[in-house]
């Protein structure tokens, strides 16, 4: 059974997610800069191979962030379009909950947490 939700709650959730994703993107950039420092300090092939894996995972993480931002923007645009087309009824309308998008955000949080944990272990060992 789908849960009905008010547009202000959907909009608020979109804003929270957008801020969260912006923070993650900044954090990934920070982590990438630290990897660059490690490259300049270490020429061990094992370390460089692991470093490359993290670089690739960070590239993929940035792609996922962009995909999630795109999905949020599409959902927000649809919501805004409905509001513009039905301004009088908007206070009485309930929308389908965005469970799929929320699940994607939750999954990303878990995967990113795992990546971050592995990254910190790697950096503490080799930095």
Q: What's the SSE blueprint?
A:
Elements: E1 4-5, H1 7-41, H2 45-85, E2 95-96, H3 99-126
Antiparallel strand pairs: 1-2
Helix pairs in contact: 1-2, 1-3, 2-3
Please summarize what this structure is.
This protein has 127 residues and is mainly α.
The helix-strand sequence is EHHEH
Number of strands: 2
Main structural class: mainly alpha
User: What topology, given as strand order, has the largest sheet?
Assistant: 1-2
**Unreliable segments (pLDDT under 50, ≥5 consecutive)?**
none
Oligomer: single chain
Return the domain count. Answer: 1
Query: Helical residue percent?
Result: over 70%
- Beta-strand portion reads under 5%
Q: Which overall shape is indicated by the principal axes computed on the Cα atoms?
A: elongated
How large is the radius of gyration?
20 Å
Distance between the termini: 51 Å
Mean pLDDT: 89
Instruction: State the helix count.
Output: 3
Major beta-sheet overview:
2 strands, antiparallel
């Amino acid at each position: 059974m789908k849960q009905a939700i008010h547009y202000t709650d959907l909009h608020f959730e979109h804003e929270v997610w957008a801020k969260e994703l912006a923070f993650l993107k900044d954090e990934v950039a920070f982590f990438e800069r630290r990897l660059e420092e490690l490259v300049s300090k270490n020429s061990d092939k094992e370390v460089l191979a692991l470093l490359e894996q993290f670089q690739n995972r960070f590239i993929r993480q940035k792609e996922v962030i962009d995909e999630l931002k795109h999905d949020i923007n599409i959902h927000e645009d649809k919501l805004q379009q409905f509001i513009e087309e039905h301004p009088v009824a908007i206070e009485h309308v309930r929308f389908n909950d965005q469970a799929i998008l929320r699940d994607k955000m939750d999954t990303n949080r878990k995967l990113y947490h795992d990546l971050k944990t592995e990254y910190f272990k790697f950096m503490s060992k080799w930095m």
